[in-house]
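Dear support,

I submitted the protein below through the web form. The confirmation email said the job was done, but the results page showed an empty box. After a refresh the structure appeared. I'm attaching both so you can tell me whether what I see now is the final result or a partial one.
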Amino acid sequence: MRPTNKLLLLLVVVIVIVTAATTTFAGDTTTLCVAQEHDALLAFKRGITSVPAGRLASWRRGSDCCRWKGVVCSNRTGHVLELHLGMEEDQSYFSGQISQSLFSLEHLEHLDLGNNWLEFPSGGQTPTLWGCRKSLTYLNLSGMSFDDGMLPPQLGNLSNLQYLDLSNTVDGRQPEDLRSMQPTDLSWLTRLPLLHHLDLSGVNLSMVHDWPHIVNMIPSLKVLYLSRCELESANQRLPHLNLTRLERLDLSYNNFDHPSESCWFWNITSLTYLNLQENLLYGQLPRTLGKMTSLQFFDFSFSGNNLMAGVISPNLMRSLCNLEVLNFEYGLSSSSMTEIYESLPRCSPSKLRELNLGWNNITGTLPAGIGQFTSFVDLNLCNNHLTGLVPSEIFMLNNLTSLCLADNNLTGIITEEVFSGLTRLKYIDLSSNQMGPGFPPWLQRLAGVDYIDMEDTGITGQFPYWFSAAFSLAKKLDFSHNQINGSLPNNMENMSLHHLLLDGNQITGEMLPLPRNLISFSISNNALSGHIPESICESPQLQDMDLGSNRLEGEFPRCLRMRKIKSLILSNNMFLGKFPIFLQSCTNISFLDLSGNKLSGRLPTWIADLVAIQYLRLSYNMFSGSLPFSITNLREMYDMNLAGNRLSGAIPWNLSNLRSMVEKNDYPSVPFFDNFPVVTKRQELFYGDRLSDMVSIDLSSNFLTGVIPDEITSLGSLMNLNLSWNYLTGKIPHKIGSMASLESLDLSNNQLSGEIPLSLSNLSYLAWLDVSYNNLSGRIPSGPQLDTLYDNDPFMYSGNNGLCGPHLQQKCSRVNNAAKLGNGDNKKSDHVPDSINGLGSGFGVGLWVVLCTILFKKTWRIAYFRLFDKVYDSLYVFTKKNCARLARKTL
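What the results page shows now:
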């Protein structure tokens, strides 16, 4: 080998060794963090009381903090530069107190603690320390709690800050201590010259009246989120608009109550995103909207004040060629489909993907030219007043995945051919139109659709043979409230359905095996008969099932695998047997309706194990025995109906355990299925989606005895209380007036005594009262509410002889008091009739004994008549002598 080659080889080896050593040395230095910062992070960890699983597992003393999860260090110096501890909305969160040691991280540039429930220590140096970390460029403190409800003005010293998130909602919720946050000054924001992202969503800014002027002094802003900030107006005048770089503006869920045209932001032509959802803006949308040519997303949904909502002028948005999402749901006043259609962007190619015009008062017909919007992915025209035929062009939109035309007056027969273009459709809702009669054959073309809603579309006839095969891959089918007859379709067990709704038809025959993946199944108000097959238990994912109002009979199978059931409605059938024992393992059930059957026996004590129960309806069965004392452990319950059974014994006294009736749960669940009635005010009322508003106890028409527990007055959220037609005794609880939410009170047909409590007049919401046919006494209480109730129902006090008052025939005397009237008068009225009845009965019995003896004993008859003749003769002589003596005296 030549010397030069040897020299080159040696040089290469030396370079490799030096490079490896350098790399190793550099690697070693990057794995070592600064000791002071290591200790500061551990101090921060000690202040956290709740840690999501695995998030801080690597944070251990003695290990390199630069390798800890969520920590990023400088490769050169080892200083901590970034701290990523923010949580996603669907994750659990940190909670606890933040140590002041966090401020010792002098080189920190990126701090993300967002979407956690953390708070800084009160007082001390915390406010001052905020302005000391000028290296920060990114700061996310969403969900944090600050002293006195104020945002630290020292944040204005962070001159390099570019991203600031101080929003106070966590996973859609707002912690109690954050609801009181109400800063009065935001002027410190103007000292952040590099700020391009600002999020104050959920912070109460109602006291910051100059907020538009403040944000206008931050020309670097590109993103501004002020959703749910209690802002009262956006009609301030800005002499000069500086927000020329602003791209995203979110002002949704505020309290703007003025004409739309007066808003200051319509001149920001750089906007790509504008969200005005759920404000009270109304009137003509300004023509300057048509100049916002960069706009891609515009949401004006759920706006409007009463009947005054947004108005679209002709050709308003024709030049918005970049518009992709347009949402006017619940946002427009009365207008025609033609006017709206003419105002939509006319660009080639069109970029409009989502158009939502649902829940408005749009009239007219669907234009045939709608087929030119080939970019449509989501088209929602539900709940309007559209008429006429459904144009075939709408079914040729190749990119359409979601179509809603429900709740209009559309008609016409759709041919199978028009569905050839809907290859991507996953959701179609044509409910509450007229797509019948018959069973539309074009439905076969929807084989790839996940959700099909044909409720109330005039479909008639039987299920076609192709039904199960055509919809074998569908996830939800709704054919309820039509006129479908005959039996259920065959081979349903092979379908992939999750939701099947067939309520309100004329389906007959017996239950057939159901799809095994079902989550919800509703077939109420049909004519199904026979027994429930055991195969119904083969749907372990089932959560909601409604078989109500059919002709089903026998015992319900012991479905031990149906442990995920949340709603079970078997009402108005002919089911027999005891309380279904399989329910003992259904601890997730919240709605149970077994009313109107022939179930019998005692209610089990383990009913208290169904801790998620909110609706318990067992009325009009044959349940007997005492009401389980443990039933008051159902703390989430706010509707208990056990009327029309054979229950006896006393009402449980510890009713204050019914927590949701004491103070109503903020988030009660509503049954998945259709409306359910509540019997209140002597009528059956349907609350629909507002069913959760009704808190009710109905124990009427049983054999309950004893007194009404005083603890019942602790149920402050109770709206309906019916204890009528029992054998209750004692007095009406004198604190009944503390049940401030009570709207209907029925205590009639019992054996209650004493006075009607004066506190009853405090119930300002009371709309129905019946205490008739008891043993009540004393003066009836007066008041505007009670007087009005009596005018509407003059029989509400009937059958109480001891009551007196201006409305009754029995007037109260001055000296009359409740004790005298209730005891003395009642005693007389009770005993005098009894004495008279006793004398009459005795006389009648004695007379019949004498007559029967005379009739059958001859010697008694002779003696009787001889005695009668002797008495007659004596009376005759006595009368004659007295008459003669009287005649002599008169001569």
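Response: this is the final, complete result; the empty box was a page-load delay. Residues 590-600+612-622+632-812 form a domain with the Leucine-rich repeat, LRR (right-handed beta-alpha superhelix) fold (CATH 3.80.10.10).
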